[in-house]
Structures are given as C-alpha cells and as structure tokens.
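seq as requested:
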Amino acid sequence: MPANEHITMQIAKQVFDLDIAENALVFFPDKTPAYLTKRFDVLPSGQKIKAEDFAQLAGIEDKYEFSYQKMAEVLRNVVGEQNYLENAEKLFKAIVFNYLMCNGDAHVKNFSVLYPLTDPPKLAPFYDLLNTRLHLPTDSFMALDLFDDGGAIDFFEFGLKIGLDSEIVDVFLKGIQSKVDKICELLDHSDLSSDAIAKYKYYVLERAKMLKRNAYAEIGVNR
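struct tokens:
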C-alpha cells in the first residue's frame, strides 16, 4: 500500500499536474516500506493554517453519503464566487483522476479546503490518492455518486453542471488518452511488485477505454 499511494501521488503530480501533498517512499533496514507525507497546513515557521475537510464543511458524519456535485456547491460557498471556477476545475480534474486510477476511497474527508493567512480560501493539495482495487478487487466503482440524484457516470455533463466551460472539460477528457503511456512508464519504475504493476495497468487501461468510448451512461455506480 505505501508503494501504491506513492506512485499514484507521483502520477497525479507528474502526469496530471495536480497539486498534491509532498510525499516520499522510504524503507526501514529490513526493507519494509513506509509512506511519508508533509503536512500542508503548517508553515515552515511552525504556525498552523486552518484546514477543513468536506465532511466538516458540509456538516455530515457519513463520509460516503454525499455527491461530488454537492461537494462543488460547498466549495463555491467556501471559496467565494470570484475564486470558484479555478478551484472547481481543480476539483473536477482530481475527481476524474480518481476514477481513472480506480480510487474507490475518494470520499469527502479526503478533500479539504485551506485558509491561507493572507489569501482567500482554496482547495488544499490532494492527498490519500491510491488504486484501491489493487487491495480490494471488488471495491466501489467510485466513492461517491457524481450527481445529487445518483444516475450514470457522465464526466462531461458533470463538468457543465458544476459550472465549467465545455471546452475546458472536453480538452481535459480527450487529453487523458495521451497520458496513458506515461502512466505505464511511471508504474514500470515504481516500487510495486511486477504483479501489482500488471494489475494497476490493466485497471487504468480499462478505465481509459471507458472514457474514450464516452460510455459513461452505461456505467452504474457500484455500491
């Protein structure tokens, strides 16, 4: 799992240019791996910055009983209209990324908002990104429904519903296919076992094909 999270975080940063929490994979003398991550809510001086996850922001207890559409609405209220679209685009890309990487644990507590000392509130760097299907082959297709009313997975429609320009959504979704080779290259150089690398590639290629076929309406959310 440490190697899984580390390589998934690196793919997010190096391939998708997502803002992620700084991290590293280290090994104990007996070669046991450990995943390290740097807190993004503490300044070099030691001063802490306020941060809240979306469960706190929405006032809910069940981290799976929500939708990504509702998350976007909460985000709009927190960051303000002037800063919403920039943050909404980042949220959209992270949600699609989690889908592609088969992260069935991208629930509301795994997204946060930071309150910088002098700047407006903004999405915090992304964290806890991993391919959950490597460990749980029958894991949920996605952690949350895209839309308030459930329904099919349609990322283009989702992007429009949360207020993004259709061209921004279209360009990002179509560009995913060109990233698959780089994803596979990074996996080949990861610390995952050869068996885990093969499975990871299979899952990503499977999801990439679904995106390419624009078959979202055929895919139900598997609870």
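Residues 215-223 have pLDDT under 50 and may be disordered.
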